[in-house]
Amino acid sequence: MTTEQDYFAGNASTLITGAYTGEQAQVQDIYIGRDGKICATGTDISRDYRTEADRIIDAHGKIALPGLVNTHTHAAMTLLRGYADDMHLQEWLSEKIWPLEAHLTGDDVYWGTRLACLEMIRSGTIAFNDMYFFMDDAARATADAGMKGTFAHGFIDLGDEEKREAEIRATKELYASIAAMNNPALQTAVGPHAPYTVSPEGLAWCAEFSREKNIGLHIHLAETEREVNDCIALHGMRPAALLDRCGCLTGRTVAAHCCWLNEDECRLLADREVTVSHNPVSNMKLAVGRTMPYHWLKAAGARVSLGTDGCSSNNNLDLIEEMKVAALLQKYSWNSSVLLPADEALTLATSAGARALRTGGGTLAPGEEADLILLTTRTPPMVPLHNCRSNIVYAASGCAVDTVFCSGRMLMHDRVIPGEAEILSMAQQCATGLVARASGRT
Amino acid sequence: MTTEQDYFAGNASTLITGAYTGEQAQVQDIYIGRDGKICATGTDISRDYRTEADRIIDAHGKIALPGLVNTHTHAAMTLLRGYADDMHLQEWLSEKIWPLEAHLTGDDVYWGTRLACLEMIRSGTIAFNDMYFFMDDAARATADAGMKGTFAHGFIDLGDEEKREAEIRATKELYASIAAMNNPALQTAVGPHAPYTVSPEGLAWCAEFSREKNIGLHIHLAETEREVNDCIALHGMRPAALLDRCGCLTGRTVAAHCCWLNEDECRLLADREVTVSHNPVSNMKLAVGRTMPYHWLKAAGARVSLGTDGCSSNNNLDLIEEMKVAALLQKYSWNSSVLLPADEALTLATSAGARALRTGGGTLAPGEEADLILLTTRTPPMVPLHNCRSNIVYAASGCAVDTVFCSGRMLMHDRVIPGEAEILSMAQQCATGLVARASGRT
Asked: Which residues contact A77 (CB under 8 A, 6 or more apart)?
């Protein structure tokens, strides 16, 4: 018998036997080496690796998928989950969200991010693209959870030079701080918040820093019609063109939302190899009025991935739910019951996200990082098994995820994550304390 | 120690201690008597009933809610889950769904409905409004699962008198068959499929049978724009007016979808005390092009409830997910982030549904039937607990449901349902056999 500690140890090799890996009932074994990479897959490899494996997981009746990748979130906003909903946007921000955020501490962000990681692991996500404050604390939390994260300090200068200098310092400090952690699972991105909150000078600095350090650039783009109209009024061009002029559109860029892109902008993003992060739940909840034009982006050959946004506007981090809502919203909004089928929704949440964050190939091919999840089929939404992928996208929720590996390290097994109770308790304490401070009760 | 059999026995009284019952951390005990009704609730009743209770359930850290009610589904279509998605409507129906349905047997419907009941119980639903074929088998399955069901034979005459007579016989037979089961949890409804598939004579007969027997009338209404336009062309009036002329709009009527109602029709349905069943997931997946106008229905004082539709067009039966999608879709479609807040979504799925199906009050008040569910709060989507109801609607999924009572009988406890494995296995076998028969492989 191994102890729980041993069982979840890193650097162990794992033989997974008998998992469904295809659309139908195609069953394979998967061997994960001690280097955290998928070493071999096949129908008859079990014999070869049974002796060598440090642990063997019987996955008969389970589905193996690449781990999911969330390309736009504000992880620590888990602490604000359910604090304010069903409000007008401005009132919601100015009366509820911002006053609470003004009282956030690094410790809050650490435990809020631990809670987010717990939730993401439980629903099959192994990597995420984060933008918020106290991002070194967020990175520490992610390392402690065993996940992969890309962390951007939300850079907002509102055209003010002094603010801009402070944001540049904060971005450089975060870069140095994460580099010093010396953990390949943690990356920095530069995070110009949006074309309407960052000056062209600020955007240009961000673009140059991203190029110089070869790191991601994470930005909100064309979420509302108003910001598009304001951009045209102020700069004489639409926001994608402004970003392009400032050098912000490259293969390192992830642009979240993109609801109000026109067809030309879709082609521009495709040409520049930008990855769009589609956030359908958030867009619906905040009633932004238009859906990311997947059909134009697809026709242009653009890269599209999936994100949950933060827990104030979703209110969860379940990418399996997000795949379903994406597939539904595209059909509904663009009036086509064939748009964004289940297979493509899965691609958005796996390989497209992995490519955007440069965390691996997002497939189960030998040589890839072992970012891999197992889902149970012994639950009503997975029965009957006419089509694995349809069941995952349209019928299941994150609860179907049973076991999670990130770079070969087992983060969850049989829905058990070591230390879960403490994280829930600490996050609840932080949230309670935050509300108390914001309301002047402490 | 009681055995599992005893533990799940009916006619046992239950004391539930320490459950959250309000928006914040209001904790109460609930005592369910042997008559299946809620006998008492309060903060200090535990002492009074501790000795008398046949079983005591510690619900500290759990939320108690009225059981959820699904007002529109085709339960046995679980067997078709994932069989065909992402297709154009006509092709999907004529090439996939209808050919398969032509091979359905009563045994298929029994096990498909058992699977549906399993899935509904696991996601907190205790009663549902069903329309399909072999409905006496569906009713038996529901009785065996311990749930409440209302069963309508899908009545389609396409203007053909001979077909109409056959449908009338089938409806009368179902009524007699369910009456003979002598189980108050099972009701018959008359089920005219839709204004475009049933002649005015057929509709009038259905209305009269509903009145005579004092049973529900379950119909699809205004799901697509085309059927509204066709109705105007054929009958010179919109479908709600046609139904009203045939006597089909009463307080016993549940009208599913209602996407294309105009404002006058909303007022008509309100005046006639019809309950609308909102089915947002299905409407999005099939790209019907418009969302049920909740704001007009609400302004008119109409009754609105929630349904999942069948598993071919959803593809699950999770009303907790449906509440979220309803709250999101209303906001998105009608361009208002304050429309259909969490509290109202919960009302749609509980008391509004219970009133529509006449299964009780759908509240936790003493004297009501003990249709009650417990949800865990010790899972990431429920933390922090700023607002129970927001977390349930926007963050949780059906997996948060932990324990389910229907008329005081415990159907699930700690996510265990006796006999689950056999149901999953039999449903899978039926689905596999059905596809084999339809493809001529047997």
From this structure: A112, A132, A310, A311, A312
Question: Which residues 235-294 of chain A have a CB within 8 Å of chain B?
Answer: 281, 283-289
Q: What is the pLDDT of residues B255-295, one digit of tens each?
A: 999 999 999 999 999 999 999 999 999 999 999 999 999 99
Looking at A333, A357, A381, which one is the last position of a domain? A357
Cis peptide before B214 (omega within 30 of 0): no
Rounded to the nearest angstrom, the minimum Cα separation between A83 and chain B is 5
Name chain A contacts of B325, Cβ cutoff 8 Å: 325, 328
| pLDDT score of B3 | 46
- Of B90, B51, B168, B81, whose CA–CA distance to A379 is shortest? B81
Q: What is the CATH number of the domain that holds A125?
A: 3.20.20.140
Q: Which domain holds residue B179?
A: 68-357
Q: Are residues B159 and B32 in the same domain?
A: no
Q: What is the DSSP string of A144-165?
A: HHT-EEEEEEEE--TT-HHHHH
Closest B-chain CA to A340: B86
- Tell me, letter by letter, the H, E, C secondary structure of B367-413: CCECCEEEEECCCHHHCCCCCHHHHHHHHCCHHHEEEEEECCEEEEE
Tell me: do A242 and A290 sit in the same domain: yes
Full-model pTM: 0.97
Which residue positions in chain A have pLDDT lower than 70? 1-7, 22-25, 442
Do A122 and A145 have their domain in common?
Answer: yes
Interface ipTM: 0.97
Please indicate, yes or no, if residue B268 is contained in any of the structural domains.
yes
Among residues A97, A170, A160, the alpha carbon closest in space to that of A133 is found at A170
Which residues of chain B make contact with A396, given a CB cutoff of 8 A? 316
Query: Cβ separation of A285 and B342 shorter than 8 Å?
Result: no
Pick from B281, B289, B396: CB nearest A328: B281
Residue B310 and residue B209 share a domain: yes
Q: Tell me if B108 sits within 8 A of B164, measured CB to CB.
A: no
Q: How many CA atoms lie within 13 A of A438 on its CB side?
A: 19
- Shared domain for B299 and B184, answered yes or no, is yes
CATH number for the domain harbouring residue A389: 2.30.40.10
Picking from B357, B379, B406, the residue at the C-terminal end of a domain is B357
How distant, in Å, are the alpha carbons of A45, B207, B255, B263, B330 from that of B266? 63, 20, 12, 5, 16
- How many other C-beta atoms are found inside a 10 Å radius of the C-beta of residue B79? 30
pLDDT tens string B128-150: 999 999 999 999 999 999 999 99
Task: Please enumerate in sequence order all residues whose Cβ is within 8 A of that of B81, keeping only pairs 6 or more positions apart, or say none.
Answer: A381, A383, A384, A386, A390, A391, A395, B311, B312, B315, B316
Residues A46 and A76 in one domain: no
Report yes or no on A435 lying in a domain. Answer: no
Looking at beta carbons, which residues of chain A come within 8 Å of B328? 281, 284-285, 325
| B426 part of contact set with chain A, CB < 8 Å | no
**Residues A10 and A144 reside in one and the same domain:** no
A111 neighbourhood in chain B, CB within 8 Å: none
Q: Are residues A32 and A85 in the same domain?
A: no
Scanning B361-390 for CB atoms below 8 A from A yields 378-381, 383-387, 390
For residue B428, being part of any structural domain is answered with no
CA torsion sign, A424 to A426 to A431 to A435? positive
Q: How many structural domains comprise chain B?
A: 2
In the block, residue with structure tokens 């609860």: A399
Q: B429 lies in a domain?
A: no
